[in-house]
Write a structure and sequence with these properties.
This protein is of the alpha/beta class. It contains 8 helices and 14 strands. The chain binds calcium ion (CA).
Length: 236
């Protein structure tokens, strides 16, 4: 058992899910604060300043999206959204509104832990960045040298085009967060049309090919099917 002191706020009205999340996290050494409604969630957020939030979108006294937008006005605390498998649109809307990640119900112990670890990694990186930390980005064997705009894997330059580099650097700047297609397209091309997603997917296919990722390998960039992409931070 770990004895980390990270505090996670879970906002979920369904008792069995709340209990499941609490049990897993508490067993792994997290402090857990529970809230059953959006109103309780806001109060708990303000009084406990959690390191991460797990947020159900369907709450009895309002939409989890309202909580998300409110918190994002002032805080960068990682927020993981819980959604049902059928709510694909809600998931994307939540990511676009600043959620860091999502978990689709039903979910298992391993997935929950991995997503919380990734969220907390973001939190640490934000802290490091605000303390004027690392100049280069590094995860596993991948290094981004921001000065020279080069991406290295195991010390070897993988020779990306400007657009490909911009995409990788953007994902790295939001490492651990799922970036939706529309977020990426807006940042990279500043405009979008009917072919934009396809254009992004073609660029991403080239990036993966240059990274030499084979199926089953550790993935630097995770394809979140139908939603977007995420720079993996949960990799050793
Ligand atoms: Ca609910």
């Amino acid at each position: 058992m770990n004895s980390n002191k990270y505090k996670v706020l879970i906002i979920e009205d369904e008792g069995n899910i709340r209990h499941f999340v609490k049990t897993i996290l508490a067993t792994n050494g997290y402090q857990v604060v529970e809230a059953k409604t959006a109103a309780e969630g806001k109060m708990a957020f303000m009084s406990h300043s959690p390191d991460a939030v797990i947020l159900d979108l369907g709450l009895p006294d309002g939409d989890g999206m309202d909580f998300l937008r409110l918190i994002r006005l002032d805080f960068s605390t990682p927020i993981i959204v819980l959604s049902a498998r059928t709510d694909e649109k809600d998931k994307v809307a939540a990511l676009d509104a600043g959620a860091n990640d999502y978990i689709t119900k039903p979910f298992g112990t391993a997935e929950l832990q991995a997503r919380v670890r990734a969220a907390l990694r973001i939190h640490q990186q934000n802290m490091n960045r605000s303390l004027g930390g690392n100049k280069n980005f590094q995860v596993g064997d991948l290094i981004i040298d921001y000065d020279t705009r080069h991406v290295l894997i195991k010390g070897e330059d993988i020779k990306l085009t400007q657009t490909e580099y911009n995409i990788v650097a953007l994902l790295a700047a939001h490492a651990g967060k799922v970036m939706t297609y529309s977020e990426i397209i807006k940042e990279i091309w500043k405009w979008s049309d009917a072919g934009s997603v396809k254009k992004l997917q073609v660029n991403m296919a080239n990036i993966r090919k240059k990274m030499g990722i084979r199926p089953g390998d550790n993935q630097y960039i995770i394809n979140e099917l139908g939603v977007g992409y995420r720079m993996n931070v949960d990799m050793e």
